[in-house]
Protein: ABC transporter ATP-binding protein
Amino acid sequence: MVSLSLQDVSAAYSGRQVLGGISTPALQGGQLVALLGPNGSGKSTLFRRIFGLLRGAGQIRVEGATVPRPIAYMPQDNGARPVLTVYESILLARMQGRRLRVLPEDHAEVDRMLDLLNIAALRGQNVGDLSGGQRQMVGAAQALVQNPQILLMDEPTSALDLSRQIDLLALLRRLTREQGLLIVVAMHDLGHALRFSDAALVIGGGGLVACGPTPEVVTSRLLRDVFDVEARIEPCSKGVPQLIVEGRASHAASRAA
Ligand SMILES: Nc1ncnc2c1ncn2[C@@H]1O[C@H](COP(=O)(O)OP(=O)(O)OP(=O)(O)O)[C@@H](O)[C@H]1O
Structure:
């Protein structure tokens, strides 16, 4: 099974360090890991560093991979060329790092992704004519069509309506189980993190705040200390943990003073 571990990893832009000293235990395939942290804490930066788009100190270790390019990355803005059709842009993503000789199985994989993500109706449309949510679904298809063993997804549900957020996260979790994939998803919705992720990696203040099983990491205390939110976590009637938000922690503290 594939695994990813970080040892004392840092990242900088033009000499300005944004992240430092990030170490994690081996994140094992078969899991969905939520990457959490406030705006500007460095989630996208950490993805760029892991994917090799940024240099820095420390070690990024991938073990157990059985393909030459085990990692795929879905950035926040997928940068798909607006003049390409949805079908062409997914096919182009599949061909990354390979000679441009399209095989019948490549077409079959693109068709499979269109069906899997329920976007087959968009196949002939230009990417430039899509809505934000539709573009995001195409971005997910572009990442998945590469058949990675580790998938880094930067806020893949931020433009989706609620039912599509649930569908996509449930699909991603199913793929981790069925294919032994390790999927790391940067997200702001801590309720979704509680519901869909196995483990959570939290960054803030330029470093790692916590890494471990989600119910142990995403707690009222973390919400208060890292996100400045007063909240309770309670199981619903089906036993799924729910986040009940009361307000900003600092406002509550200043009212009490
Ligand atoms: N290309 C860049 N050049 C210089 N600084 C950058 C660049 N990209 C990001 N930064 C800085 O690095 C820090 C971390 O940004 P990053 O985008 O990684 O945060 P994030 O956690 O993904 O934020 P958000 O939740 O808002 O998407 C911020 O201070 C940001 O200004």
Summary: The two ends are 52 Å apart (CA to CA).
